[in-house]
Amino acid sequence: MHIAVIDDGVNPSIFPCIGQLLFDKTVNERGKVVSRHGKIAGLHGTIVAAIIKTYTDSAQIGSIKIIDDETFQGRASHLIAALQWCGENGIDIIHMSLGVQALCDEPGISDCIANLVANGTILVAALANNMRYTIPACLPGVFGVKAASHLDGDQYE
C-alpha cells in the first residue's frame, strides 16, 4: 500500500519506525513536483507518517512537501500539482492535514479529487480548526477528519 503524505515534508530520521521513504518530493515555484534532495522537513508531516506506521507496517510512505517553511502556508496550485502527481503515480491513499477555505480554489481541487476518487484512491483530509467549510475535507469521496481533544487513544466519533 502506497501512502502519500502531503504536508510540510517527512523526516524519517526523527522516527525510525517510518523507514525509508518511497519518494520525497516538493512542489517548486513553477508548480512542478520535483525531488526534495535533503532539505529540512517540517515536524507535522513527520508525525503524521509516524502515526500511520504505528497502525500498519505494510504501508510505504512517500512525502510531498507543499507547505512553506517560513509562512507555514501552501498554495492551492501546489496542492493540485501534488494531487495530480499522486494520480499519475498510482498512489493508493493520500493524507492531507491541510485544506483551503477560499471558494475560488474549489473548482481545480474538486476536479482533481473527483478524478482520484473515480480511480479508487482513498483520500483523507483535515477540516479547518475553525470548523468551517474546508476543501478538500468537505468534498464528496474524501474522509474529512478533525481533532477532538476529548478522545483518548484509538477512540473516534
Protein described:
This protein is of the alpha/beta class and 157 residues long. Helices cover 25% and strands 20% of the residues. The protein contains three helices and seven strands. A hairpin with a 5-residue loop joins strand 2 and strand 3. Helix 2 runs parallel beside helix 3. It is globular. 34% of the residues are buried.
Averaged pLDDT: 89
Q: Nearest-angstrom radius of gyration?
A: 15 Å
Ends distance? 25 Å
Tell me about the biggest sheet? 7 strands, mixed
Indicate the structural class: alpha/beta
Number of strands: 7
Helix content: 10-25%
Helix-strand pattern: EEEHEHEHEE
Beta-strand percentage? 15-25%
* Poorly predicted runs: none
Q: Could you give the order of strands across the largest sheet?
A: 3-2-4-1-5-6-7
What is the overall number of helices? 3
**Bulk shape:** globular
Question: How is this structure best summarized?
Answer:
With 157 residues, the chain is of the alpha/beta class.
What tags apply to this protein structure?
157 residues; seven-stranded mixed β-sheet; 3 helices; single chain
Topology of helices and strands:
Layout: E1 2-7, E2 24-27, E3 33-35, H1 43-55, E4 60-65, H2 76-88, E5 93-96, H3 106-118, E6 122-126, E7 142-145
Parallel strand pairs: 1-4, 1-5, 2-4, 5-6, 6-7
Antiparallel strand pairs: 2-3
Helix pairs in contact: 2-3
